[in-house]
Amino acid sequence: MNEQFRAEGDINTGDLRDHWNRRHSAETNALLGRDSRVFIHQSLSTPCLDVVRSANGSTITTHGGQELLDFHGNSVHQGGYANSFVLNRISETLKTIPFCPRRFTNIHAIECAEYLTGKTGGKLSRVLFAPSGSIANSTALKLARIKTGRHKVISFWGSFHGAGMDTIAVGGERQFKEQLGPLMEGVFHIHWPDTKPLNLTEQQVVDSIEEIIVHE
Predict the structure, then answer these.
(1) Is 161 within 8 Å of 134 (Cβ atoms)?
(2) Is the pTM of this model over 0.90?
């Protein structure tokens, strides 16, 4: 089995995981047990490692009082780790505009969109806010089909573009495709250069892309 899968998820039953679990207090273990009984966790994200009591700056404090420097960075931390500027702006906005329904706008959305489009040097003039990266990529796939009239996609093995059915198809990670049956058609995967087992050169990767374009 690939070492990546040995190191993560339920199948990691090694000495290091056992040592980590023995450090927990009875109260922490009880909370972790309650969590596992009521949540469906994402692939490779179970069991939970610990219980977070607070977060500040780049530091997580666990329920047992241990401070951990967070190098994870998986997902956008919308509120930051107790970033006072962000929290204060969110609090001020929620007091006046806690929700904006469809077909209405508000000054905060307009200013944010203007700021983002202003960063593109005039190349992009409009934005669409999405609730997640997966949905953003799904929307991009739809727009590309409409604009180009084409439906085929070239992607890399090992890439991750989201957990939706279409973004799983475009992605190249095996564990997200297993047991799902037929996925979106028209997706062709290629290898990154200098990765095992093929160790292709950059030119060989370019040639493989051109071959797909010619034949498809």
Answers:
(1) yes
(2) no
